[in-house]
Amino acid sequence: MDFRSLLPLQAVDQRIMQLEHRKVQLPERASADAAARALQSARAETDRLLKRQGDITGEIDRLEVRGKELDAKKAKYEAQLKTVIAVREAEALQHEIAGVEGEHSSLDDAELLLLDESESLDKRIVESNAAIPLLESAAAEASAAFAAALASVDTEIAAANEERTRLAAGIDGETIALYDQVRSRMSSAAVAEIVKGACGGCRTSLSVKEQAETKNVADTSDARCPYCGCLLAV
Ligand SMILES: [Zn+2]
Question: How many CB atoms lie within 10 A of CB 25?
Answer without folding.
Answer: 9
